[in-house]
What we know:
By secondary structure, the protein is mainly α. The protein has one domain. It is 57% helix and 5% strand. The protein has helices spanning 3-12, 18-26, 45-54, 64-77, 85-96, 104-116, 123-126, and strands spanning 29-31, 37-39. α2 (18-26) runs parallel beside α4 (64-77) and α4 (64-77) crosses α5 (85-96). It is globular, with a radius of gyration of 15 Å.
Amino acid sequence: MSEGEALYMDQNKGRFSKAMAEWAISSMRRKDENDTLRPITRHSIEELEELMRQMGMHIKEEDLYTAWYLYNMCYADYPKCLPSKQAIAYFIQETLYDPDCCPEAVLACFRAKMDAMDIPIHWERMI
């Protein structure tokens, strides 16, 4: 583990920081009707918070940026599996607070995807 990554993990406890979430969301793509990859329409933290409020669900403060990443990932990667805002809210809640897992697993999966695609994470910029 690099010094930058260790510092990031120490400061963010294995969760997404605002900078990490912004970077990850900015690179999300989805195929259009012509099978061409296009950037997704970015959904804001405020939209996420409003959805969770409407659903009567709560996100812990330390999980907010991880939840924001998941919210946008749902639109990029799972539009058919999660066709409604209600389904997306449940997915986020159940992913973050799965009793036999932990919120840190979301960043671990993201790191694995970046490694598999040979995309470096500039940890120092994400703090």
